[in-house]
Every structure is written in structure tokens, then in C-alpha cells.
Request: fold
Amino acid sequence: MVYNMLMDNIINLSLEYQYLVTFSLVLLLPKILLRLRIPSGITALALGCLFANIFGWFEFDQMILTLARLGITSLFLFAGLEIDLEDLKKNIAPLSKYLVQSLLIIIVAAIGIYYALQLSFQISLIISIAIFTPSAGFILNSLRHYDLTEEEIFWVKLKAISKEIAAILVLFVALQLDDLPGLFKAKGIFLILLFLLPHVFKMYLRFIAPYAPKSEVSFLVIMAFLAGVLTKKLGTHYLVGAFATGVIAGQFNHFISSEHSKRIESSLVTFYSIFVPFYFFSAGLIITKDFFTVEGLLYGVALCVIFLPIRIYSVILSIKFFIKDFWQDRMKISISIAPNLIFGLVIIGILKQRFEIDPAILSGLVVYTLISSILPALYFQKLPPEDYDITRVR
Reply:
């Protein structure tokens, strides 16, 4: 009786108190549980799942959705800014071979899923992208916590970013396969966007930035959000426009190599670290009770048994044939590229909203995504933050 009364009181909390409880937990609890080697994104995801299924909070809540969109666009904006085209050009030979290998694996896996699950090839290709694409933003945010050398971090970063670029381009096409005229229209509008963005940045740097100091992060976030909304309207996803905005912004020295760049990077990291947990929380809200089935768990285990070894050993083979100098670091690099939490959740959301798919399959993808994303935390010895001073607590 007491339990039922308590639950009724929690469920019937006013929206104001629901936000208060949610914001406190989403912003603090993931950081606290990092001590237990639980990635913060997984904690926020679990909170969303808990609130949706136990309390019934925030179904179609526009504030949570807006915060989530700010989180995903700012994260992919940062991922785009992190791309160094010079590094990509210098290592074009090994990276191009690696990407060809990766795309072939995605296509072969899509064909296998097509026959095994009797889904359309479009859906099978989207699922294959979810399985094989590392989440560069999530990976880059975690690398400094693990026992990796600068050279290992360099190759993990290059491989994750290059593969994510390729996957975003494939996803852009895959989401339009059932509407080829729409694909060409979307491609044309996207190319116009890519043409206009550099001119917008030039105008900002010439006419606004000198007279509005420290406005760069606000401008970048707004541009990424607007580009994300546009690409969403074109039938793809927010991440496509946000990522493109980051890549283009990264070609301007003001944002990446000027006296202001460190401040811009630090402010942007602070911004997305606040809002990204709301993306994971929002993703957890779509994990409804029909996901919790034995069949879904079996799908997830099967995906892990089949595809995780393929992902790990495909990276090992690419190191053996394309970058032999790092053969001794092969397992470190391959495990570091395993997480696909953000990209996986993005595609799970797309599949649930746009296609009629057995919830057990989506549940299996959730299980696979969680296991692949927690692998580095289990494999590596976690390092304490370099700038943490224990004397500050005295």
C-alpha cells in the first residue's frame, strides 16, 4: 500500500518537479557512475528508459526533444571540427583501403541481414550501418581516459572519423533508397548548403566576430542546429547537417588554430557535455516495454557473437596490411574503435520512427550497441584525469 502511494505521488509530480528531478539526475549521476567504469551515455540512456517505463514521464515532451537535438548537433559539430583534412590527405592510401574494406563489409552484412531476417534491403543496409559504424564523438571523448600513446590515439581518431564520414554519406543515400527522386532533390539541396556555408562563415568572421567577442560558440551551435534541421527535413538526420557544418568550420583558422581556438574548443566541449546526456536520455525514452523480451536478448547476443569479432579483426587486418608499423598495438586500436553508442542509438531511433520493424530486432540492436560501447572501459585500465588535484578537497 505504501509503495503504491509513493509511486502514485512520483508519477503525478507536476511537470516542473519532473524537470527538476530529471535535470539533477541526468547531469550528475552519469558523472558519479564513471567511477564504476560505466560510460555516462549508458547511465543517461538507462535513466530515460526507467522514467519512460516506470513513471511514464516525458512522452513526446518538446523540451526534452529540443535539448536532445542541441546535444546531438553540438556533438557532431565538434566531431566535424576535429577533422584535420591534412592528416586525411597524408594518410589517404591506408585510409582509402580501409574504407573500401569497411564499405564492402557493410554491404555484405546487409545482404546477410536481408536474407536472414527477411527485411527490405534498405532496412538491412541501415541496420548494417548501425552495426559497423563507430561513434567518433563518443570515442574521442573517451580516449584520454585510457592507457593509449599519442600515436595510438592518432590512428584511432583517423580510423573512427574516416569511417564515420563514409557511414554518414552511405546513410544519407540509404534513407532515400525508397524515394530516388527525393534522393536527387535532397542531394541537390545538400550541395547548395555545402556551397553556402563557407560564405556564411566568411561573413560572420568579417562583419560580426570582430564586434561580438566570444560569440563563436553560439554562432557555431546555431549554424549546426539549423543545418541539422534542414537535413532532417530532407529525410536524413540532424547529424548529417551538424557534421557538415563542423567540417566546413574546421577549414577556417579562426576556429581551429588562432589565439581564440582553445577558448572556442573548451567552450564547445562544455556546451555539448551539458546537452549530450539529454540526447541519451531522450533515446532511452523510446525503449519501451516491448523491447524487454527474451527474443530481443537473443538477437543482441547473436549480433555480438557474429559481428563484434568481425569488426575487431577487420581492423586488425587493416593494420596488418595498411599500417604495419602499429602491428604491436593492433588490439588496443581495434577495441578503441568498437563503441557505436551514439550512431547506433541514432539509427535505432530512425528505424523505430520511420519503419515498421519487430521490436525484438530493435531490442537486439540496443543490446549490441551497449555491449560494444562498454568494451573499452572493460579492456583498458582507466587513467585518472591529468588535471585533477586531490588537495583541492581539503
Observations:
- The first helix runs from residue 2 to 11.
- The domain at 62-276+286-377 is CATH 1.20.1530.20 (Na+/H+ antiporter like fold).
- Confidence is low (pLDDT under 50) at residues 385-394.
